[in-house]
Design a protein that fits this description.
alpha/beta; 8-stranded mixed beta sheet; 13 helices; about 45% helix; globular
Length: about 290
C-alpha cells in the first residue's frame, strides 16, 4: 500500500473517466492509505475501496432509460428531479447495481476514506467517514452528489448539506494538512480547463439560499476559487509535488447520456492510467 493520498474530483457523468482510472489501479492492486472523493468522486472512492471493477461504469453508462438517474427532459427538470438521488444512492446500491458494503467497511480498516459534503449553515466543506452504518454512508454520498439549485438539501448528522464541490472541489489542501506529501489527483477535465465566471445566477442563488447566506456566498465564488486552485495544482504538478491524471482526449459533458460515448470515456481513463502507470509508481517510490 502506498503511503499516499488519492484525491478524486467530481464532475457528474465525467466521473466515468475516473472509474476507468480506478479500475486499472484496482487490477494492479494499487492501494492508497488515504482516499478522498467529492460528489461523483465520492461514488468513485466507494467503488475503489470495495474493489468493484466496472461498477462506476455500469452506474453511469446505463442502457435502460428507466434506470438512469439523470433526466434532462423538460418534465423532469420542472419537477426538480433531473438528478434522481434516490435512484443513484438508494436504488442502485441496494437493488440494481449492488454495492459491496462489507468489503468497503473492511477496506477502511487499512485505508482512510473521506467523502466531502458542504455544510449549508457554514458554507464550509465537511470531510466525513462512515465505517459500519450502511444508511449513513449512503446519506453522506447523497449529500456529496446533490447539486445546488436542483436537489434538496440532505440532512447529515443534524445539519443540511449539499454538493461537496461547493466547499472543496479538489481537496488537495485537506490531504496536505493531514500530512501527505505524495498526492495523486484524478481530474475530469483536460489540462488548462477553467470555469467561466458568470454572475447571472447570483440573485437566484441568494434568494434560493437566503436561509444559508454563507453557503450562497461560497456557491457564488465557486468558479473563481476553482480556477485559483487549478492554477496551484498546475504549478505543483510542474514542480513534481503532485501527480495528476486527467483526460487527454475528448471530454464528455456533465449530463451526457449516450452509453457508448460514456463507455468510451471510461476506456480513455483506463488507457491514460495504463500509459502512465510506471510513471505513477516512480512518483510514489521516489
Amino acid at each position: 500500500m502506498a503511503e499516499a493520498a488519492l484525491i478524486l474530483e467530481g464532475g457528474g457523468m465525467r466521473g466515468i473517466f475516473t472509474g476507468g482510472v480506478l479500475d486499472y489501479l484496482t487490477e494492479q492492486k494499487q492501494k492508497f492509505s488515504y482516499v478522498v472523493g467529492v460528489s461523483a468522486g465520492a461514488c468513485n472512492a466507494m467503488d475503489f475501496l470495495s474493489d468493484q471493477i466496472g461498477r462506476t461504469r455500469d452506474c453511469i453508462a446505463v442502457d435502460d432509460e428507466n434506470l438512469r438517474y439523470v433526466h434532462m427532459d423538460p418534465i423532469h427538470i420542472l419537477k426538480g428531479n433531473a438528478f434522481d438521488m434516490d435512484m443513484l444512492c438508494n436504488q442502485y446500491p441496494f437493488r440494481y447495481f449492488p454495492f459491496d458494503f462489507d468489503r468497503f467497511f473492511a477496506a477502511e480498516k487499512e485505508s482512510e476514506c473521506e467523502l466531502v459534503v458542504t455544510n449549508c449553515l457554514t458554507g464550509e466543506a465537511e470531510y466525513l467517514q462512515e465505517k459500519s452504518d450502511r444508511n449513513r454512508l449512503m446519506t453522506i454520498c447523497t449529500a456529496s452528489c446533490s447539486i445546488p439549485l436542483i436537489n434538496k438539501e440532505v440532512i447529515v448528522d443534524g445539519y443540511p448539506c449539499l454538493d461537496g464541490g461547493v466547499g472543496d472541489s479538489v481537496p488537495i489542501v485537506r490531504a496536505l494538512k493531514k500530512g501527505y506529501r505524495k498526492n495523486v489527483i484524478v481530474l475530469t477535465q483536460m489540462k488548462g480547463f477553467r470555469k467561466k465566471i458568470d454572475h447571472r445566477l447570483d440573485l437566484l442563488i441568494r434568494l434560493k439560499y437566503r436561509k444559508y447566506p454563507m453557503f450562497a456566498k461560497k456557491l457564488i465564488r465557486r468558479s473563481a476559487e476553482y480556477n485559483r486552485l487549478m492554477d496551484r495544482i498546475d504549478k505543483w504538478e510542474d514542480e513534481g509535488r503532485v501527480f495528476v491524471i486527467r483526460p487527454e482526449g475528448d471530454v464528455v459533458g456533465r449530463t451526457e447520456q449516450d452509453p457508448e460515448i460514456l463507455r468510451a470515456f471510461c476506456r480513455q481513463g483506463c488507457e491514460v492510467m495504463k500509459k502512465r502507470y510506471d510513471e505513477l509508481c516512480a512518483y510514489l517510490e521516489e
